[in-house]
Amino acid sequence: MKSSLLIPSLLLFTALYSNAQGIYTTTSGEIIFQSSSVEKNNADINSNMRFTLFFHLGEYLHLDLNDNIGLFSGLGIRNVGLITEETDIKIKYRTYNLGIPLAIKVGSFDKNLYVFGGAEYEWMFVFKQKIFENDEKTKYVEWFSNRTPHFIPSVFAGMQFPYGMQVKFRYYLDNYLNHNYKGSTTYSDYTSFNKTQVWYISFSYVIRNRNIKQSKYIERDVAGL
Fold first, then answer.
1. What would the DSSP string read from start to end of 133-191?
2. What is the pLDDT of residues 138-162, one digit of tens each?
3. CATH number of the domain enclosing 204
4. Angstrom distance (rounded) from CA 180 to CA 161
5. Confidence label for 116 from pLDDT (cuts 50, 70 and 90)
């Protein structure tokens, strides 16, 4: 049901492309502060905050329908995960995700001040797990792993400020780990998890790139200089 909305949304985005007054691209990274809610064997377990700088990069196409309403989509890659801590055992789970967002924005685009919100589907293409036990560290890496869902949906909202600063909140709608996965070791058996919900707050610096179609309100501003 969730994935069936992606294609119609992209078709709508394409239809609006030809009617947009302004079309341009932006590039941004993210500084992410992640948190999670984790339940195991029907009990809450400790989940630490996770801070990441690398590797987060997004390239987005903006369609400004006028000076106050617009849309954007594109591609973003980010490092997402969670940390659990039980008695003398800490485990870090993370994935690299490639996502396609679709969002609406409302505000004053000539001042680069607006709020936005939307949804995104992310492909979880690399899985990594680190286990810290008795001062020993064990690593595991797998591409296209079944330890997580292959795709995970999220919703997000944020605010863009002048001079490029942006703040955003993202909430993942599905569990981060695949609770049906049962590996050959204790730490690869995820069937005891009841909930692995992830969300985060991020801070970004957004760089505006070249104009593909210059908006009418920008033309007016340039003419008045």
1. ETTEEEEEEEET-SSS-SEEEEEEEEEE-GGGEEEEEEEESS-SS-TT-B-SSGGGB-T
2. 999 999 999 999 999 999 999 999 9
3. 2.40.160.20
4. 42
5. very high
Closest CA to 61 of 48, 46, 71, 51: 71
Q: Are 194 and 180 in contact (CB under 8 A)?
A: no
The angle subtended at Cα 60 by Cα 50 and Cα 111, nearest 5°, is 95
Peptide bond into 125 cis (omega under 30): no
Interatomic CA distance for residues 72 and 21, integer angstroms: 13
Alpha-helix runs per DSSP H in the chain: 6-17, 216-223
Q: Which domain holds residue 43?
A: 3-223
Which residue type does 44 have? D
Q: How many domains does the chain have?
A: 1
> What is the token pair recorded at 105?
């924005």
CA-wise closest residue to 200 among 84, 57, 90, 79: 79
Q: What length is written for the chain?
A: 225
